Structures are given as structure tokens and as C-alpha cells.
Amino acid sequence: MGQIVKQDRAVSVDLMHAFLRLMEKEWSAADARERRELAAIGAYAVFAFCGSFRGPEVFLVDLYGLIKYTDENLAVDGKEYIIIPLLGRFKNELGDQYHLTPLIAVSKSGIKVKQWAQHLIECRRAEHRSHGPAFGSRDGACRYGWYEREFLERFQAVQQSHPHIIPADVQLLEDYGISRSFR
To answer: For the chain, what are the domain ranges?
Structure first.
């Protein structure tokens, strides 16, 4: 008959900042292989959060477009922006098309969107990749479950070290996920 529907909890600004502090700490101690993974996790998080993208939409970020638009210095009224290019089919459109989403390079709260995009680009260039999905493998396969596990592990670390951000009674595996918008 009916279904029990439970929405994912929203990722708060405080949680995002705690998550990114943890990511930056890991980044500074990581080797090249670990940095490739961290760049993908960090960029996914800031794009999903700041762009209000739903989980599957982040996998539509096109690497070629991201490189092209990140290399351009876009500024309006002294504020720097970055373009996040999604490539795919949206709603009732025919064929794959670019959808360009401008995001501020550094948010008012201090989230460094452009820095994580540059980390991702640097790591993809080290893999000799400049085309295809920014978050998938060369053939376009996306590791959705891997990303969710990586986020939840770090959210658990935040929960243990900052119980005022995620209270101890919150069931991370049930309450958080990446299938919907982080907002």
C-alpha cells in the first residue's frame, strides 16, 4: 500500500566546515594516490553543497568544461567565480547539453569551491585525463556507493569529535545520504 518516506538530513554549514577541515588535514598528509581520492570527495562535496545539486547531478560535471572554465578568470564586481558545467539530458530536452552553473570561488562562509575544483583538475591531469566525467572513470562509470561511504565515514568522525554539530543520537547511515541535495 503505502511507503515510508524519510528525507535525508540537510548538511549544515557547520557540518560542511568541519568536514572540509578534516579533508584539508587529510590532504596535507596524503600521497598522490590518496590525493586523487580526496580531490574527488572534496570537489563533490563543495559542488553538491554550494551548487545545491542532487547527488546524481554532480556526476554530470564534465571534466573538459571544468578545466576550460576554471582556467578562465571570471570576476564580477571584484568577486571571483567558477563555472560548474553539467553535461547531460535534463527534463524534457533532446540530446545532451551543457548547463553552466556559476558558483562563487570562495563562499561568504569560507568554502573554497575553486580550490577543490583545482585539486580535482590537477589530479585528473596527473591521470592524463582531460575529457569525460569529472567524477567517473574513463568509461563514465560512477562509484555512487563509494562516495556515500566516504562521506559517511567522515561525518562519523565529525560526530565523534563535534557532538554539537551531529548529536550522538543521529543515525548517520539512516539520516544522511548523497542521493538528494546536501541542502
So the answer is: 13-159
CA atoms in the 13 A half-sphere facing the CB of 4: 1
Q: What is the CA 121 to chain-centroid distance, rounded?
A: 13
13 in Cβ contact with 183 (< 8 Å) = no
**How far is it, in rounded angstroms, from Cα 121 to Cα 100?**
17
Interval 31-51: pLDDT, tens:
999 999 999 999 999 999 999
How many CB atoms within 10 Å of residue 112? 17
DSSP 3-state of 9: coil
Residue 66: Cβ within 10 Å count: 25
Write the pLDDT tens digit of every residue in 79-125: 999 999 998 876 666 667 788 999 999 999 999 999 999 999 999 99
pTM for the predicted model, two decimal places: 0.89
Sheet holding 79-88, edge to edge: 74-76, 79-88, 97-104
DSSP-based three-state secondary structure for 75: strand
Question: Strand pairing partners for 79?
Answer: 76
User: CB of 165 within 8 A of CB of 154?
Assistant: no
